Description:
- The protein is built from 12 helices and 15 strands.
- By secondary structure, the chain is an alpha/beta fold.
- The radius of gyration is 20 Å and the shape is globular.
- Bound molecules: NADPH dihydro-nicotinamide-adenine-dinucleotide phosphate.
Amino acid sequence: MEKSKVLIVGGTGYLGKRLVKASLAQGHETYILHRSEIGVDIEKVQMLLSFKKQGAHLVSGSFSDQQSLVNAVKLVDVVICAISGVHIRSHQILLQLKLVDAIKEAGNVKRFLPSEFGTDPARMEHALEPGRVTFDDKMVVRKAIQEANIPFTYVSANCFAGYFLGGLCQPGRIIPSRDSVFLFGDGNTKAIYVDEDDIATYTIKTIDDPRALNKTIYIRPPKNILSQREVVEIWEKLIGKDLHKSSISEQEFLASIEGREYAEQVGLVHYYHVCYEGCLTNFKIDGKDEREASELYPEVNYTSVEDYMRRYL
Ligand code: NDP
């Protein structure tokens, strides 16, 4: 079967650049939206040029020019969007409604993967304010996709390893301490940690896979379903030293969110749901509308938590 042509929107982003690399590595003709707004952002331009050198095609376009989006979409079979959705960086999830309109107008796209790549928003109706905005906005985009009858795959990638393992699951930290750590309650709630390069590899695997059509694909590498305490133990083994541990109760943590900057509050609410509630692991994947990536693609040799953490030694 001929491999689909892919357009990556947000290809210079934290996840997007990995999607570009994975798409090229898996042999897809790969197009990247080059937005005029990036202007003289030399880092982004250099990154785009390096992708071009590796065989990607750069397509000019802008979210302020609908026809340019339609023209870009018409070049490909599959569109993957990795537009920003982390408030402490930038949150542009609803801009995707323009992309949905463009895909609808172009009429040729066989699969659209919107910018999701986290907690499944469909399971977060109960999420707390203000963090729920991420899930609510992602659901608005899903509704538009489904109303337009656009074939889709939603990728629920759980915790990006760089944020969560880097900080031993502590918000606001991305380098693991060699001295101390605070635990969410008893630290025994399970979460799921995925190397961002593996997220990209699994995502690209889904695009020509009929088993992923109109499905939610959860990335749950079995060895990486661990509690915060287990993550800390792996780190302690690697550095050959026990960390000093303190604990924050659920009530204390919730109280600590009040009065913070809005963007911080959004992030802290996400940590609350992951690390106290266990929202990533407290449900079963149904096997019909929902599938698990490491089961579908056992050939992917995913990175274990221990191997990921070696980089900080
Ligand atoms: P980034 O913050 O790295 O941004 C990605 C890209 O979005 C940018 O490079 C840019 O692409 C595009 N963008 C930003 N602002 C605008 C704008 N105003 N107009 C048009 N495009 C814009 O995103 P991430 O990689 O951090 O996030 C991608 C997805 O992953 C999100 O859905 C996010 O929620 C999710 N995520 C999940 C995490 C987890 O732990 N599960 C952690 C972090 C993110 P360009 O300039 O190339 O066009």
